[in-house]
Amino acid sequence: MASKKKGQGFQSAAGLIRYFDNETSKGPVLKPWSVVGIIAVVIAVICIAGFVWPAA
């Protein structure tokens, strides 16, 4: 009975590994510094817009 549980667990783990392997190969790949740069530009634009168009 214990050997059947071990066999099922291994098969489930193998299926999850195969699923996540296929999932990671899709989509755009961004470098971390690109993300930091984009965030910095967005923050700068928001700050400049606050000075140009101040709230009433």
From TrEMBL:
Q: Which GO terms describe its biological process?
A: protein transport
Name of one Pfam family that matches: Sec61_beta
* InterPro entries, sorted: SecG/Sec61-beta/Sbh (IPR016482)
Q: List membrane-spanning regions.
A: 33-53
Q: What is its main location?
A: membrane
Keyword tRNA-binding in annotation: no
Q: Name one GO cellular component term.
A: endomembrane system
| Cellular localisation | Endomembrane system
Which of UniProt's keywords are assigned here?
A: Membrane, Protein transport, Translocation, Transmembrane, Transmembrane helix, Transport
Entry membrane topology:
Single-pass membrane protein
**Family per record:** Belongs to the SEC61-beta family.
Official protein name in the record? Preprotein translocase subunit SecG
The organism named in the record is Candidatus Methanomassiliicoccus intestinalis
